[in-house]
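sry for the spam today, last one i promise. struct tokens for design, 252 residues
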């Protein structure tokens, strides 16, 4: 178990829990968990977050589909704070344009791959999003990217976005670690988690150089999530030649 660096106290959940105890005298563990879960759901609700989807099949000159792009991304409606609405919607539009540009570039490569490997399954990029946390002050969400060559997933990755709803700006993990002056302690705990998991799941003994590379920039934008009352760091294990794919989540 690793030490958690608390960020957002669950005042609403605690209030409901205390109320339940006072009215029932003694509340079963299962009942208290339901009360807390209900409070969480109420906190996470955000009517102004909507979904948009873009999908397109890219074909070669002979009309054969060689690349399929599907992107589902968040769009903030007029009910959202103006600054964060403009910031997030502009960023999502920019990323959508990048995905389309990459698709155009990959069409011929995909077609050549299909021809050489005698397959009719096109390359594809599938992007989805998930709202991780919403409060009166912050919005945190992720984009999950799954790149596939002829039906085989390669280099899946997760990108995090954390916004201050008052300023419309993305925030830094250091703002949510109470004793951020001692980043080394946090970094050491993240490294130890990674090292233990690698050894347990893959019998892989990670050296210090590998751990440094896996945690490089861990406090920067895109590498962490605000999630209720703790910070979750994202570790892109797909980037390293250790036989593992995806993005690990390390809660602190």
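last one done:
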């Amino acid at each position: 178990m690793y030490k958690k660096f608390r960020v957002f106290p669950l005042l609403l959940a605690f209030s409901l829990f205390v109320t339940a105890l006072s009215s029932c005298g003694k509340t079963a563990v299962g009942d208290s968990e339901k009360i807390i879960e209900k409070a969480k759901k109420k906190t996470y609700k955000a009517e102004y977050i909507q979904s948009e989807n873009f999908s397109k099949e890219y074909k070669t000159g002979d009309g054969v589909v060689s690349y399929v792009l599907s992107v589902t991304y968040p769009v903030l409606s007029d009910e959202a704070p103006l600054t964060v609405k403009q910031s997030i919607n502009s960023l999502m539009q920019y990323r959508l344009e990048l995905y389309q540009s990459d698709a155009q570039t990959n069409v011929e490569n995909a077609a050549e791959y299909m021809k050489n490997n005698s397959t009719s399954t096109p390359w594809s990029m599938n992007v989805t999003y998930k709202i991780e946390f919403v409060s009166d002050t912050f919005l945190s969400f992720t984009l999950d990217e799954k790149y596939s060559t002829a039906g085989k997933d390669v280099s899946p990755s997760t990108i995090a976005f954390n916004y201050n709803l008052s300023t419309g700006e993305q925030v830094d993990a250091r703002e949510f670690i109470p004793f951020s002056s001692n980043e080394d302690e946090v970094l050491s705990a993240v490294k130890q988690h990674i090292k233990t998991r690698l050894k347990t799941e893959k019998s892989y003994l990670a050296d210090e150089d590998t751990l440094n590379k896996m945690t490089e920039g861990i406090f920067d934008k895109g590498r962490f999530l605000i999630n209720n009352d703790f910070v979750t760091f994202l570790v892109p294990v797909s980037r390293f030649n250790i036989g593992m794919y995806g993005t690990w989540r390390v809660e602190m």
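The first helix runs from residue 11 to 24. ok im logging off now
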